[in-house]
């Protein structure tokens, strides 16, 4: 009987975390969908937008295509992001428990269990959902009047048929994996560390008491947004060049002039650097990335924490 109750408790924990993570991901991505599309257009030097800035580009999307075009590719994004975010947040909770026991309370590497758990969670999630990211990028890169793909299924079928099967859906997967480990690891690590600092040193300004929480304290919404936003900014700074490489590889086969970017990760990195340098190549679109990453990660973590609180999952932290 006790074993059955424990199993039921574990299943309940997983389902609640999946729901909380999925909703958090959908809210965060929808919040920044226009900036997400603009970033893709800038990263891959889309012909109609490559000479424009962030805000002038957004204005031109509305003028040239329509307001709804700001959300082009967001349908595929939602289909991808729910399982992605659900898997990532749930995997993080499990990996955090495992690494916490493995590493122990060693002061020199305090909180590093969060970094390894975040990295592992990010890798797990991207492995399961990467083809949908490729499809979403293709749809977002299209300009009204010059469509090659008509929807999610048509995009997938065309890539499979014309570009070499299932392998084509995973083009750019290696730089994604290499970028995801530091990005997801730093995102979760920084969020947990900043959250810990807020709770320990300025709880009167950042926290409310919550008797049902094992930590006794829970961050208020502005503090959650601040912690998430700062964590996102730090993580993106380190991993961004590999994000650019991933995008160039994903979109390489859409135009004969850009096919050279689809050969391999290292050759693509070299090409980007050789042709455009660091600021206009490897870090192209970084300004818009800060504009989207900071609110995206902030909303993601804040929504996840609020969902956990609503679903009676522990959102506190032991402060010592």
Automatic annotation (TrEMBL):
Q: Where in the cell is it found?
A: Mitochondrion inner membrane
Q: What do the Gene Ontology cellular component annotations say?
A: mitochondrial inner membrane
Biological source species:
Polypedilum vanderplanki
Keyword list (alphabetical) reads: Membrane, Mitochondrion, Mitochondrion inner membrane, Repeat, Transmembrane, Transport
Which taxonomic lineage is given here? Eukaryota, Metazoa, Ecdysozoa, Arthropoda, Hexapoda
Q: How does it sit in the membrane?
A: Multi-pass membrane protein
Keyword Repeat present in the record's keywords: the answer is yes
The record's section on Pfam families has: Mito_carr
This protein is called Graves disease carrier protein homolog
* Intervals holding Solcar repeats: 12-98, 109-197, 223-310
Query: Domain of life here?
Result: Eukaryota
Q: Name one GO biological process term.
A: transmembrane transport
Q: Extract the InterPro entries matched here.
A: GDC-like, MCP, MCP_dom_sf, MCP_transmembrane
Q: Which family does it belong to?
A: Belongs to the mitochondrial carrier (TC 2.A.29) family.
């Amino acid at each position: 009987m006790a074993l059955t109750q424990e199993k039921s408790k574990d299943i309940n924990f997983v389902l609640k975390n999946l729901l909380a993570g999925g909703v958090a991901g959908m809210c965060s991505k929808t919040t920044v969908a226009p900036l997400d599309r603009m970033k893709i257009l800038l990263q891959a030097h889309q012909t109609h937008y490559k000479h424009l800035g962030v805000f002038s580009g957004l204005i031109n999307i509305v003028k040239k295509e329509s307001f709804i075009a700001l959300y082009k590719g967001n349908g595929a994004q939602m289909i991808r992001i729910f399982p992605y975010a659900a898997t990532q947040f749930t995997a993080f909770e499990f990996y955090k428990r495992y690494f916490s026991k493995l590493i122990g309370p060693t002061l020199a590497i305090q909180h590093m269990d969060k970094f390894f758990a975040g990295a592992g969670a990010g890798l797990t999630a991207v492995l399961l959902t990467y083809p949908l990211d490729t499809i979403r990028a293709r749809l977002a890169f299209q300009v009204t009047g010059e469509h090659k793909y008509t929807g999610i299924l048509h995009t997938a079928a065309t890539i499979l048929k014309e570009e070499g099967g299932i392998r084509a859906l995973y083009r750019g997967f290696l730089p994604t994996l290499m970028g995801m480990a530091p990005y997801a690891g730093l995102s979760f690590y920084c969020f947990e560390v900043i959250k810990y600092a807020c709770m320990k040193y300025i709880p009167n300004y950042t926290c409310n008491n919550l008797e049902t929480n094992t930590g006794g304290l829970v961050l208020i919404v502005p503090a959650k947004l601040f912690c998430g936003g700062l964590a996102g900014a730090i993580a993106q700074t380190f991993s961004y060049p590999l994000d650019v490489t991933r995008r160039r590889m994903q979109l390489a086969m859409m135009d004969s002039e850009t096919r050279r970017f689809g050969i391999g990760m290292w050759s693509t990195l070299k090409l980007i650097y050789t042709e455009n340098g660091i600021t206009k190549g490897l870090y192209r679109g970084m300004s818009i990335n800060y504009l989207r990453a900071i609110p995206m990660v902030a909303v993601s973590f804040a929504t996840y924490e609020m969902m956990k609180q609503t679903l009676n999952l522990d959102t506190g932290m032991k402060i010592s």
